[in-house]
Amino acid sequence: MNVNYAVGDGMTVADWLRFNARSEFAPLLDPGANEQFRRIFDASPDPIVITQASDGRIVLVNDEFVRLSGHGADEAVGKTGLELGLWPDPRMHEYCAALLQSNGTIRNLGMTFRGKQGEQRTFLLSAAEIDFDGRPCRLAIGRDITELRRIQGELVAAREAAEAASRAKSEFLSSMSHEIRTPLNAILGMAELLFESGVGPEQRKYLALMRSNGNVLLNLINDILDLARVETGRMRLERSRFDLRALAAGVVDTLRLRADEHGLALELGIAPETPAAVIGDQLRIRQVLLNLLGNAIKFTETGRVTLTIEPSSDAQPEAPPAAADAPARVALHFAVTDTGIGIPEDQLDDIFASFTQADSSTARRYGGSGLGLTIVRRLVELMEGRVWVESRVGAGSTFHFTAVFDQAPEASAPAVAAERAGEARGAPAADPAPAAPEVRVLVVDDSLDNRFLLRAFLKRFACFVEEAENGEVACRKFAAGRYDIVLMDLQMPVLDGYGAIRAMRADEERRGGARTPIVALSAAALREDAERARQAGGDFHIAKPISRAALIEALEKALGRPLPPRAAPEASSPGPGGAAGLSA
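User: That's the sequence. What structure does it adopt?
Assistant: C-alpha cells below.
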C-alpha cells in the first residue's frame, strides 16, 4: 500500500513509516505546536494510531479511528489496544509487536480488528517505530478493506456459480442429446434397413419422409449443441492440412441435388491466387459453408446460388508467425450470393442473433430454428474472422465471411499420387471366400433397440455378435472370451463406457495379450466424448445416430481389413462366450 497524504511542507504520511529518531521532525509531530498537522491527521481516510513503544498505550488517534472503532479519543488515549478489545485474537497482537520489534516496520499485513459493538472489520496494517513528542512511539495505519473483501468474495461466489451453471448446462445438454439421439438412432437405423429391404414404391416414399424428417431433427440437435459449446467456451478448433478447393467442391456437390430440386444453378468460383492447401479446421469450415449455402438454396426460388473464395483484403492476420520456420498465415474471403427473397435493411443487424429470422412468416414457410447463422458467426469468430451480409428485399443476399488459416506447403506430385493410390488400396473390397474367419464382435449398449440395430447392420457380414447391456457385464465377457473388436456405448448404467474401456485395457495388460480395437459409440455427440474415450483407451469414435456405412467404415478401419461377407447366412459358429453367443 502506498499511502500518500500530504503533511506540512512536502511531507507525507508515507514518510512517517521511515521515521527513526530524527529529532528535526519532532516539532512537526507535536500536535500542540503544529495545528496543520492535526488537521491533516484527522482528515486521513485511514485510521491512524500512535502508541508508546514502552507499554503500547495509545497517545493519539485520528477521527477515522474514532468513527470505525466506536471508541472516542478520550476513551482510547491512555489504554492499550488489548484493553479496548481491538484484537479478536491476542496472539496476533503479540505477533505484530514481535514483528515490529525485529523489523522496525510492518507493511500491508492483513488483520482483523473488532469495534466497540463487537463488529469485526478487515484492514491492511502498516506500522513503524517513530520518535513522537520526544518519546519512542509506534505509528500504525490501517487501510479498511472490509468492503473490498466482501466484493471479492461475492465475485468468487458468482464466478463459481456461473461455472457450476455452465457445467450443469453442458451436462444437461449432453444428457438430453443422449436421450434424444438414442431413440433417434433406432428410428433412422430401422428406416435405413427397411429402405434397403425391397419394399414397394409407396413404402419407400414413407421411409424417405421418415429419414428426411429424422435428419432435420438431428440437425437441430447438432445446432443446439454447437451453440452451447461455443457459448461455454468448450468449442475447440482442430488443426489439420486439407485441400480447400476439394472441400469447397465437395460441399457444392453435396448440395447440388437440393439445388436441382429447386431449379437453381449452383456455382463455385475460386480465385487463382487462393492457396490450394491450408491448415485449419476443415469440419468447421465445411459446416459454415453448408449452412450458408443451404440457407441460400432454401430461400431462393429462382435463379442461382454462387460460392466464391479469394484472398481477403481486409482481414489480414494480426500477428506474424511466432517462429521463423512457422507456416505463413493467410486470410481468405468467402461469399455466398443468391437471388432469393432478400432481407429488410432494418433487420440485417439482428440476423445473426439466436433464434432470429427476418420475418416470423419465414419459419412457417421455409422452416428452420434460426440457430444456423448464430453458429456461423461464432465459428467464424473462432477462426479469427468476421461475418456480414449485404441484401435487398426481392433482389437476393450475399453473406460474406473471412477466416485465417496457416498456409500449408504444396504436396509434390509423387506424394499426391501415392496418397491417392493408398486411398484406392484402402477402399473396402468384397472377399467372397467362404473360408474367411468370422469377426468376433462384442456389442455393449444399454439400449436393446440399439443392440438389435447394430446386429442387423452386421447381418450381411461374417460376424459373430455377442451383447452386453452395461460395462460391468461387458468386462466379465471380455475377460472370459476373445474378441476381434468391441463396440462400446459410452453412457450406460452400472459402469459406463469410459470405465469399461479402462478396465478392458487393464485386463489386457495383466494377460499380456494383443490390443483389441474398441470403437466408442456416443449419443451425446460432443467432441469431448471422443477425447475422453481416446484417453480411456478407445481407438475410434462414432456419434449416434449411426448409419450402416459409417459403422462398417469404422470397423474396417479399426480392424485394418475389410469385413468378410457372410457366405452362408444360416451357418453359425460358437463364439468367444460359448453357448451364450448368437450369430448376427
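The chain has 19 helices and 20 strands.
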